[in-house]
What we know:
TIM Barrel; 8-stranded parallel β-barrel; binds ligand PBG; porphobilinogen synthase activity; porphyrin biosynthesis
Amino acid sequence: MPYPEIRPRRLRRNPALRRLVAETRLSPAELVLPMFVKEGLSEPRPIASMPGVLQHSRDSLRKAAAEAAQAGVGGIMLFGVPTAKDATGSGGIDPNGVLNVAIRDVVGEVGDATVVMSDLCLDEFTSHGHCGLLAEDGTVDNDATLAAYAEMAVAQAAAGVHVVGPSGMMDGQVGVVRRALDAAGHQDTSILAYAVKYASGFYGPFREAVESSLEGDRRTYQQDPTNLRESLREVELDVAEGADMVMVKPALPYLDVVAAVRAAVDVPVAAYQISGEYAMVEAAAANGWLDRERVILETLTSIRRAGAQITLTYWAVEAAHLLRRNY
Ligand code: PBG
């Protein structure tokens, strides 16, 4: 009798069989493209540590946002880089600040062809690079920061953003933002909470992208990479405070956390494949050490398989095109 009788390889024999039994499928609709816009630029500018990603001008941002919508990506996440930063990050609240202007531009351009989201945090706007306001002793003052986030959220909603993404890891930020939005008549603006955000070395290239000169580190507010259960607590709090969706960040080094969060809650779960995850693959591919396109899709598939139904990725548009070709 031939042995073995049961042969899992039978279903791997050719692409048609493999496609038929695929357990995980990616689609452009679940991908969100993070985009940077810098105040005062007339031409877009490359970001050295993120080859292929740009600091946009107002014009190039509008155009690139329209292209992303055209490619079928599910959403866009906007980050603003102001020309002048100050201790309180006032550029984030100013209705004429770079991010709020960009929101109006992009919403005007794409309408509701794709979901427009904005980062709701102070680190792009503060001279010290922290996500909040500093107390006299130099620590980040949680509750003073909440008041600033509330104002920022209302300014972003007034500019027309569909979803705000509070990402500063201050305690109570989702509740404060929800109440502020509701009080200002923006009941329909959603919150994608960066509920789980680890103090990660993988944010490195992002600092270049937003020209942040961080003094010290973020370990007193972002989470310690050793912890998993703490993330479930963060998620539980954010859902209770009114988060419509929750995010885990970074993605690839924290797939166990993505899976645990997926199992714990019923709201949509997102994961953010961050700047360092992008840079790592681009650098290896540039050296000829990895098959770039294959690895891009493999990383996105693994994030999906872990349980994220939305993925923020700097490859969103390219992946959308690759998916059309490969499926
Ligand atoms: C906070 C924010 C950061 C990122 C997204 N939102 C930086 C940080 O928290 O340190 C990082 C994204 C990336 O690295 O791609 N404004």
